[in-house]
Amino acid sequence: MNTPIGYEPLTPHASPLTATAKIFVAGHRGLVGSAVERRLRAEGYTNLVLRTRKELDLLDYAAVAAFFERERPEVVIDAAARVGGIHANNTYPADFIRDNLFVQNNLIDNAWRFGARKLVFLGSSCIYPKHAPQPMKEEHLLTGPLEPTNEWYAIAKIAGIKMCQAYRKQHGFDAISLMPTNLYGPGDNFNLESSHVLPALIRKFHEAKLAGASAVTVWGTGTPRREFLHVDDMAAATVFLAANYSDSEIVNVGVGEDVSIRELAELVRDAVGFTGELEFDTTKPDGTPRKLLDVTRLHGLGWKASIPLAEGIRSTYDWFLQHQADFRT
Ligand code: GDP
After folding, report:
1. Nearest C-alpha to atom 23 of ligand 1 is from which residue?
2. Going from the N-terminus, what domains does the chain have, and what CATH number goes with each?
3. Which of 45, 128, 153, 317 is the catalytic position?
4. Could you tell me the distance, in angstroms and rounded to a whole number, from the CA of residue 15 to the centre of ligand 1?
5. In terms of CB atoms within 10 Å, which of 8, 47, 93, 175 comes out highest?
6. Atom of ligand 1 nearest to the CA of 126
7. Closest CA to 161 of 115, 112, 111, 105
8. Which one, of 288, 273, 160, lies nearest residue 221 by Cα?
9. pLDDT tens digit sequence for 154-211
């Protein structure tokens, strides 16, 4: 259970996020959206509006407008995005830029148009320049070229940030933008072609253990460094900031510590109980050398992550073991 520093239940007038507010979580079937839904319910928010992809196509402006006109949610949490790991981003650039631009434009514009009082836009740490100083501060946005393997996704997310800032500036719309670091946890994508590194490694080590394999192949050199935040921590931060933050400046959401891909692989190997070797496939891309967020602003606002990486990997592996039959493979 996350106990944010200084967290206090809100008075009804302090924020649009009241106990009875109508809250639309877009993307509630995804890794982040499902965690946000769990967190909202755990904190006693009951008036949630949820739509599956079949019920509402977020790519369709007219359908989204009709939904907002009918439902008029007061708070919108945009956790809907096309996401993927280094291989998927690199292989489907048109899908990544198009789908993310369409979905976020449709949500932000209609939320404002139909009177939402708050919108939370979720970006990503890949919006920062490839060679940004580490740890990356919010003001490093748009100070240099992006990492080419995910620049399409990053450009869409940067457009989302600017859209929120523009609507706040021109219309006084209370849209905030949060930039999570690499997320993982229950509900993750374990497909080896499209997943991020942490779930990919859980699956690879698990399957190698079952097969009695002598080694597991890790992509790249193992030297890039990444920061990992458990999605339940991300959801807690999202609800906390939806309630307590209202400004155009973006906010990094991370733990403030990173590990090398080799160290991550060793942690996953130990959690899974695989006893073989690690092999590095250097024909696969490393991506950006380091992606560590500066979380000074987040801590100043009164929130800190609480799930240690080794514990988060163990519980995610447990979740994997219980759900592996249901995966999209
Ligand atoms: P990124 O943070 O956007 O680069 O996305 P990823 O999570 O996909 O990859 C992070 C790092 O982990 C990169 O250096 C990858 O090459 C490395 N990596 C090692 N093994 C794997 C794997 O099996 N799958 C993925 N997706 N990445 C891996």
Report:
1. 200
2. 23-184+228-256+294-307 (3.40.50.720), 197-225+259-290+313-324 (3.90.25.10)
3. 153
4. 38
5. 175
6. 3
7. 105
8. 288
9. 999 999 999 999 999 999 999 999 999 999 999 999 999 999 999 999 999 999 999 9
